[in-house]
Fold these 3 entries.
Entry 1:
Amino acid sequence: MTERVGIGLDIGGTKVLGAVVSAQGEVLTECRVPSPTSTWAHLLAAIEASVTELRGSHPGVESVGIGAAGMVDLDGSIHYSPNVPAFRSTRVRADVEAAVGLPTTVDNDANVAAYAEVRFGAAAGMTDAMVITLGTGIGGGIIVGGAVLRGANGFAAEVGHFQVDPNGPPCACGEIGHWEAMASGTALGVMARAAAERGELASALALAGGAVEAITGQHVSEAARGGAADALTVIDAYGGNVAVGLVGLANIFDPGVIAIAGGIVNDGDLYLEPIRRHFLGHIEGASYRPRPEIVPATLGERAGVIGAAILALDHQRSVSAGSQ
């Protein structure tokens, strides 16, 4: 019996990462092209070129799955994406399907990453889990009863955009005090620069060549790995900001596992330890309940393409079963 394979595409603000993925979640081949995000016509052309290249090595692919940053509805249209101007009321599924001639499924990039981690990664075997990506913004996928939580319109789990501090910093979306504005990778850099301006982060300032405006979260991590107390203090405060959002979500959804993705995972417990400590200090009934594990996601940047491909293959299998 021929192994079922599909194409997964992870579309972001800078790149289109594509892969041919087996039904067992194995990446068989991949390609990467820049993401021309200014117009849908240009981005669609990049998607079509990626699919054509991948089909060249695996002509038997049966479907295309797309994970994309933005508000994806249940029909596969993307209504809005703050970082991809091409996604403004865009009929992504219909247009890609017409362009490449393959059944296509479209979902939010964090949703498909969560699906991959539940099927093959850090949350494998769990029916209730969350995958939170701390990057430029905060992405989230929530698995409830074994299924991706999508909501009435497909827009559920925009976890970066709930308010945790009504007097907090402005978010990129225009609102105030959203979790993303306080706990994303971008927010870590903002916190670090503010600390340096107060004279409280000499270690990272030195690594940035003495220029406050050049300080990034990477400088904080590097200084902390070297044991700098001032950098560890910033990381502890940042861990508290991450934890306050996780606590709110955990109190609502009661996940068995919370998998953290993003660059900070590479530093392991340097970040995860303060996140776990602050989380356990605030979750409801911490001494009287099973505590959800907070673990690093394991699939890395391939989670999106794996999840998108598997979601599309699963959808095709259900369609085929329903037609019999």
Entry 2:
Amino acid sequence: MQELLIQLVGEYVAQYARDFIAQYCTPTEEKTVYDNSSAYPSWEDGSIGQGKFHCCCSAGVWYMYNLALGIDLYALDFNGLCSTAISQMPSSPNWIDVTNETLQPGDVLLSSGHTEMYLGGTENANFGNSPYAGKISPGPRLGSDFTKAFRLQSSVDVTPNGALPSGSGSGGGTSVNFSDFYFNGIPDGKYSLAHTSLWTLIVETLAQIADYLIGILTYIIRIPFIGWTAIMDNLLNWTVNTVTDTEVTEEDMGIDSVEVEGADDENRLTIDGLLYNDYQLTNINIFE
């Protein structure tokens, strides 16, 4: 379960990076500027999406985790200087060294002078592409351009929102552990995390399945019961009506013509009538 949660959160931040680059970082339109003068990204007009986007490779990876998950990687042993990050992250309790493992989306790739985020397949998010910041690069290139790969631990508290805020900042909000989120795949390929525990989701799903099964079994039982009840009711009605609908004439009885009681609709034989002894067929009422 822990490994699955790590994977899902990595896919979430990777998809967020894809969406961000597509929205703000088209290099041919010169929306961005490569700028390694600060460990934090900035916007020329002061708010996100306003003016050109200034960023470097490490700052871009920090920004994606910050916007998507509400965390500050610099407080988790990541560093704006690639050489510092690559030396301190292996011993950090906040990161898993996955250099010799199969990479997953969201993994951070490091060399002594560059940082990118693995997006999956053959693609990386690259915010250090001079003169522009922000594009999709071939990836993962681990073993050639990059010497180390790290994955965020599941014990790190996050506040995912999946929405671009009104301005850049350090994120924040009430921290919620990974285990308090579940992963929800959306048909368009994007990802979101919701504030519902995985255990609650499983219980609710099983309860819904059980409800459907009970409903189906109920109908299976009711259909033949109602069907046979209707058949017996019609059979009794037909039998009694055949008998009671006969007229007795003067020629037969030597008296004025009469109709046998019960020939009208009101006195048709029914199951309810039999049960409650409405026809005086017997002196026994099964409910007395």
Entry 3:
Amino acid sequence: MGPILSALQKLAPDLQPLLVHTGQHYDSVMSDLFFSQLGLPAPAAHLEVGSGAQGEQTAKVLSRYEAWLLSCSPRPVATVVVGDVNSTVACALASVKLGIPVVHVEAGLRSFDRTMPEEINRVITDAIAELLLVSEPSGVGNLLREGRPETAIRLVGNVMIDVLLAQLPTAKALNQVSTLGLIKGGFVLWTMHRPSNVDDQPVLEAMARAMIRISEALPVVFPVHPRTRARLESSGLWTELAAARGVKLTPPLGYLECLSLSSQARIVITDSGGLQEESTVLGIPCLTLRENTERPVTVTEGTSTLTGQDTVLLQRLVLDVMEGRYKQGRVPELWDGKAGERIAQALISFLG
């Protein structure tokens, strides 16, 4: 939202965008710190939804956002939703039922895996949105196949890359590498939080053991998501990882701290879609712990390779990187740091 709000302020100063924080992401490091680091304005509303089961959380966001919309005078003329989280689909549903058009940023992304809650959120949101702003060419094709009109679709590029390019000098200046006693290009950054990797005990064990083996060749920095830490502690794996000399466990990182590391890592190992995108632009090999991805351009053009839960393949690819055999990628079309401006122009045109 940062680049979008900045571009709207510059290109359409008469518009009055209001930022709503649903509270779905409520950890202080993973929420409040992002606002301060990225220069986001204070939210006009905070729905304070918090954690919960998929249905419970989605219902809370829908109910509370609907109530907020009804309290507004005048009524908002559109709702802009981003990404594929529960808040995305819930706010979209609340809006269209009140006759408020929805604009979806990052529309059209598909993993074609409907066991992923995010995939359901994406499909539903795109079905009811009136303006579909797409980050990569595959999204355009997906939306057309699903019957969305071509006039509703705009290929605008990846707004997350605007953030990365704007924040990269500041992130590097933090020098997290030296703080952790590492050397540039001499470590692995590993993140993992998806249920498919952390909720299945045998899979989690295999990943932890692979991390320890890889750390014997290259130090591994592992910022631990709260969900992942809970699973590691309940299974006894936390003690094993903490005892491994090459594994550096850290609390969750702010955006800048994480970018400071990802931009200077030798390898990124992750199940995060965002890090798939960022590593592609940074030119860092990315081994993605997923069977599929809604961001296929990071695989076909970028630096990402899907390893799924195959830890043997994972370790072989780490060796390929270290010995110079890993593929080179390129930056996809329109991932140029100007997506926020294109999104703002599309919004201005849409709103007349």
